Amino acid sequence: MLLEVRGLTKRFGGLLAVDQVSFGVKHAAVHAIIGPNGAGKTSVFNCITSFEKPTSGVVLLDGARIDGLAPHVVAAHRVARTYQNVRLFPHVSALDNVLIGRHRLLKAGIWDAIAGTRRFRQEQAAALEVARELLAFVGISHRGDTLARNMPYGDQRRLEIARALATDPRLLLLDEPAAGMNPQEGMRLVGLIQRIREERGVTVVMIEHHMRVVMAVSDRITVLDRGHVLAEGRPAEIHADERVIAAYLGTPAADDRPPSDFREVRGA
């Protein structure tokens, strides 16, 4: 296992957002976390990355505890993430957004930058090459000089992934990467996530409501409902789990069959 979450609990005053959540993710796997709105999915991500301190429980990365560490220390353990709402630097170019993600790995200090030392120039040139390669990897090399705020929404999502990859992660957390995408864009995202795993060896954990994306790319799925784990298994097992369907749709009357993306995927 690369990531192990054991008994994770998070309280906000009287609200129990995460309730004894446990799951594990193997190296180079794609693991999805799904569930209705308010199920506690993003709170789990926030605890893994130390944006929130768990009330109790343990988070292990390759066997070492990372729960309770400062967020920048967790990032230094090669954990990167994207967000439910796009968080780019809107007034700089796509290329510079990716370079910002790369700067954490640079060794040259402020005096190297001021003096323009050879070390600084070499690192900057190498970072620029990586940034351009990552823009091409996510399919937006033609957007390098475009201000982030002027990019189409789907390309902004891809830019966020490129910036996260610039930190050289071994664990990448994607929070609703397909949000706002049409079905064609969603399936292109599936291909990108597969390439991130296969070509770069990165383990991916994603929160996603786009069920066609989830079922197409995930090795295993953890389903949360009201803060606790409702089900976990392979996509085919989750397809067939009536508890999961009820959590998403409610329990229908005998003659009702409400239309939904989940039902459509299940029958696909």
Automatic annotation (TrEMBL):
GO molecular function, one term: ATP binding
The keyword Iron belongs to this UniProt entry's keyword annotation: no
Keyword hit for ATP-binding: yes
Pfam families: ABC_tran (PF00005), BCA_ABC_TP_C (PF12399)
Domain ABC transporter: 3-251
InterPro entries per record: AAA+_ATPase, ABC_AA/LPS_Transport, ABC_transporter-like_ATP-bd, BCA_ABC_TP_C, P-loop_NTPase
Entry keyword set: ATP-binding, Nucleotide-binding, Transport
Protein name: Branched-chain amino acid transport system ATP-binding protein
Source organism of the structure: Labrys wisconsinensis
